[in-house]
Amino acid sequence: MAVFFNRRIPDEAHDQIGALASRRIHVFAFTPSNGWVIVTEDGRLFARNIPQECFEKLQEFLSAGHKVRCVAFPSAGGNRWVIITDRSFFARNIPQECFEKMQEFRRRRDPATWVAFPPGRGNRWIVLARNRFFARNIDDECFQIVRNLSSGTRPVERVAFEPDGGWVVLAQDYFFTRNIDDECFGQMRSFDGDRWKIRNVAFSPQRAGWSLICNDRWRSRPRDRMREAEADVAGNSIWSEMRSRNIPGAAVAVVQNNRLAYSTGYGHLRRGHGAAAHPESVFQAASISKLINAVGVLRLAHTTALQLDDDVRPQLNWTLGKRNCLPSVGPVTFRSLLNHTGGVIGRGTTSPANRCSNFSAGGGGFAGYPTSARVPSLLQILNGSGPANSPKIELSHRPGTRSSYSGHGLTLIQRAIEVFTGQSYRSWFSANVLSQLGMNTSTFALGPPSSLAPSDQVADGHLSSGNRISGGRNRYPESAAAGLYTTPIDLAQVIIMLNQGGLYGRRRYLPSNLVTQMMTGAPVANNVGLGCFLAGSGVSTNYSHGGSNRGFRCTLIGYPRRRAGVVVMTNGSDDAFPGDVAAAIQRAFGW
Fold this sequence. Notes:
By secondary structure, the protein is of the alpha+beta class. Helix content is about 25%, strand content about 25%.
């Protein structure tokens, strides 16, 4: 049994679909001039106004017992076409790169199963295979959806492009559409509600016509945990929550069995613009920078004479002051600064500036500097002198007596690393941390990686209203506390290394005892490790860090005993959203 629905297609095509539907139609496709071709599972062929050579090649394949899987026509028209069968493919006058990619897939024993061409001339196409895909110059959100689904358990089977720019992605029982005819979308939902698997979607280049063909019903839907998570963010779909919370874009990476298992993107890098958010897109990591900074300090402790319990002050070439009300204090160690017990001004200990107790709430972070503002030097930040917009860094309470979240303390470490290594913080981390852990799209520079075009690969920050912040993003010279640019995929590499006790690939990046120390709580706050926060027990034991820069929110969570983890990065200002997405993933994967 089969069902179909057509609207505004040639009458003869409609009649032939009705006559051949019981034979299971594998292909129905239009040419740019509104010619069309139908091929059934049992080899019946019917066509009107397609290139003669294409028709003859179809006859040749069918006579040899091939099953035709795809017939596609580039929108430039003429004698341009491609045929894919269960055994081979043949193409005439399609873009050379597309043809070469199909040859490459075949050499890799994963032959192409589908090809589609969006409207417009030039090198524009997508090739699908069972285990891979490749696209060139298609709509970026369409690429995003195909990219997302390719890492799930419902592989993309077909993509169809509408002449006016809309598109459809079919992935077994799941589909995603954008800018297609409302009636077409409604009919797709109706078929899906009746458990029909949509086999073929075709758009006529004339009269806004379209055709839907279904050959089978789904008996059971394969489980796809990422699709479950997408549908269960605070009780709604992730897209619905992003709209209601004014979050233009988000990107996610999921670690399972200590490997990157899923990586997905949603929405856009800038509100109102076409560049989609991908897990390879660059976001500001905000305070997740502190976790990466801790990894760097551990690396220094492993490879140099520096020790975690060394006093940081001799490495500053600058005098760390203290408030007059504070008596003499002991060492201010790297360890205590990493776990926020170093006595440096921070959350709940910053103001008033003349007190050593009974503080007001707040403090601990940095506001950043708009692109129109002067950026202070590190010494100006330490001294709290113009143009720095943060107070001078000083001791406000005795080290080791309380936990006070302090980005300012991490800035002392930033200064110490530069003095100790004789290199800029950015350069040392690039060579000794980022490149060593495969974080090749990450940087502690004041701006995003210079190799990327900000318009199509780097996220802009947005306020809670949804409006883009001036200049796209603030700059954070307080690198150790808030200055990292990175991607979810890059941060997933850190989760994998820490989950494996310091192993990265086949080499040891950190000794296991240092990783254990990182995951050990502070004496006065057992939920605070070195550069991370600790929670859970048993197999649910985890480390985490969130991030909140102007226009960006993110979170990272690792589960060493589950060999799992998740990274969520957004270019919006909703504090709860990254955690809500992470919670949806935790539920879907049973963490």
